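Sequence of Probable transaldolase (Arenibacter palladensis).
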Amino acid sequence: MKFFIDTANLAQIKEAQELGVLDGVTTNPSLMAKEGITGRNNILKHYVDICNIVDGDVSAEVISTDFKGMIKEGEELAELHEQIVVKVPMIKDGVKAIKYFADKGIRTNCTLVFSCGQALLAAKAGAAYVSPFIGRLDDISTDGLNLISEIRHIYDNYEFETQILAASVRHTMHVIDCAKIGADVMTGPLSAIEGLLKHPLTDSGLAKFLEDYKKGN
Ligand code: E4P
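Predicted 3D structure, token representation.
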């Protein structure tokens, strides 16, 4: 399973990259705003800065909600850097835009996916990635992980090439459960990745090894 980090924070992206397990980055307009990145030129520059840190795909989201606007924005984003994947919302014009981009060889990430039907449409239109938001489903008492399982089943039935990018991952157990189900990618905060490191027996075992080494030297 690929690991993407879901942030526009350059320091956190660098930290994840240095760990050696990072495969890409996802951003969205809220994450850019959180880092104080505003204005079209600053936003475009920030995407390039992210591409220069990470070896892998970087999702950059369009703001337009009409077909023509999404095409114009998406083409501008795709020209920024070869690692850019254009993030398009799961709406009617978004599906049309995904198909247009697929025909042009521009890779897309279909975002804001909350149902199997939406995931099926994204794959049919030719999205490179589909992003089901598992944490936001959990937030409204709906099983986000179950959606990942169902999409996995549907995509395997028809050998769709669209990669399942489990998004809105909130914690380490989401990462492990997504890996068990067979999501192709997960995107979450640095804390969800670093949580995988932790085990009390590792800590106590290491402390004992170091203590015994000191005794013998
Ligand atoms: C996906 O690409 C989104 O940026 C993201 O995962 C949303 O997560 P949230 O629900 O924690 O905001």
